[in-house]
Amino acid sequence: MNKKLAAVLSGGAVLVLALSGCSEDEGDKVGDWAKTFCDQAKPQIQKRADAHQIIISTAADSKPAEIQAADSKAFQDIANADRALAKAVESAGVPPVENGQKIQQDAIRELNATAVAYEGLKKQVDALDPTNQQKFADGLQSVADGLTKIEKMDQDALSKLEEGELGQAMAKQPGCQKPTASVPPKTSGSASPQPGSTSSDSDSDSDSGSDKGSDAEPTGKASTKPSKKTSGTKTEE
Q: Are 20 and 171 in contact (CB under 8 A)?
């Protein structure tokens, strides 16, 4: 039972802000925008990493009621972080790049939409009956199906910001680097992947401890069962 529950939520969504690569100086305006945004984004990226860590660690060997409480809080934390990231994009102003206004507006809209989707998952988890293990496990499977869709939203939310000279400028900012989850993982024999930090390697296989310099791209695919550890590394984004 516990392994099944761990498998269901082992591949949660993570908003990827760990950008790879550097370039020559792209200009003060682009760099200034990136610094303004990333400085505000840093605590929200950390919050998402921690929420994802909690889901994985709790699902590893916990009772249904504990999983329910942890997932509910984690989904709300990720939703709050997404809204805060949307405000960070807004307050940073229009990015000084081609089509900057559209890029900004799309990011704000998609982050807010992702926040609403995570709150929907929270309500779905809150409605589960932890006293009925079979129904609870089935309910978590439905939650995992919802995560599959939200992962795509997560991946798209800031994708345009992460392209071109703007993305290169953000990659240089400490605030937009991959964080290490501050919540310690549980050491158990669970089949779930070992959590570590968020990165751009794989959203569905994200919580393994990896090198911070990873530059792999996110897969954007949720998994309802644990996947094997990759060379790099669910939060919430």
A: yes
